[in-house]
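Fold this sequence, please.
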Amino acid sequence: MAVGPGCRAVRGCRPALKRAFSLHKAHSVKDMENTLQLVRNVVPPLTTKKHKGQDGRIGVVGGCREYTGAPYFAAISALKVGADLSHVFCTREAAPVIKSYSPELIVHPILDSPEAVHEMEQWLPRLHALVVGPGLGRDDALLENVKLGVPLEGGDRHGAVLRLSQALGNVTVVQKGEQDVISDGEQVLVCSQEGSGRRCGGQGDLLSGSLGVLAHWALRTGPQKTGGPSPLLVAAFGACALTRQCSQQAFQKHGRATTTSDMVAEVGPAFRRLFEA
């Protein structure tokens, strides 16, 4: 779900947790590595014994006439991280364009239908995670179908993200920035993985799609694999680190000319470097 400028939120049920991390703990190299190890713990092994869909059926809700790239970036990133199936629920005008970007995506042109909510509800039981927001635009009818309240305010980023999470009922919130701040209303993590100075549009969509997959994996494995911290906190940290690593690797090759498409091409190598090395 999208919450305010530069924010992402993920809702999940979990028991009350102790504050395993301080506001600034994840700044150090050692703590970054420790948290990355928690992400590695939830990554499912590749095996011939699984069936299609078991490692992730992800839905992306977004895409309108003006914005077709955003839902594509989110959905294709989900596939490249390791989801088996990736669905896009978009407007009728956006569907042919999104389909033309990639044959791997399953595209549903229903978002501007009067029965959009009903039609989408039929698919929800088949999905493990839903990413809401990429490329929705500003159409009132579309926003009414997916709206979520509460703006992000205040100069103290750590405290503001913590309070926003609490106000939303302790959903896990990610605020992107020079360093990404993540909170579930009880704990705050900071991801300072090196990225790049390139600020092309679409990087948040890569983050959202990656987070959808990692959230499914983390919730499936549970707190026993994340050493105590909320699985969604660990998933969000992993998605932030991966997005930053993709940005760094793409920038090393393309410099100022780097685009999000270049970053998507780095998802596989960046994932291996962070979570499989």
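Residues 1-5, 11-26 have pLDDT under 50 and may be disordered. The longest strand covers residues 85-90.
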